[in-house]
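Incident review: delayed structure delivery

Summary: a single-chain prediction request sat in the queue longer than the usual turnaround. Root cause was a stuck worker, restarted by the on-call engineer. No data loss occurred. The affected request and its eventual output are reproduced below so the record is complete for anyone auditing the incident later.

Affected input:
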Amino acid sequence: MPRTFNEQCYELLMQIPKGKVVTYGDIAHALGTKAYQAVGNAMGANPNPIIVPCHRVVKGNGEVGNYALGLDKKIELLHNEGVIIQENKVMDFKTVRFKFLLR
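Output delivered after worker restart:
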């Protein structure tokens, strides 16, 4: 049975280690699409937001972005994983940005 777009997004999320982040665009590109907004919608619809770590997805400019459990919770989760956030932006963005292995 084919996986839904959301399920494909969640599978990619499970590859991101603690202390790393990706962008909505990174996920879209890894799926071979430019459907960045659809990736955002998938993150918002995540039925297990702590287990499937959508808090590790940020905007392309390094801003933290939205989170179903609230911005403060997203920042707290990232902080607990060692990601430094200042003024709602990921510090050392290029360093903590995870790169998916392309298929």
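Verification: Strands lie at 22-23, 57-58, 85-86, 89-90.
Action items: add queue-age alerting; document worker restart procedure.
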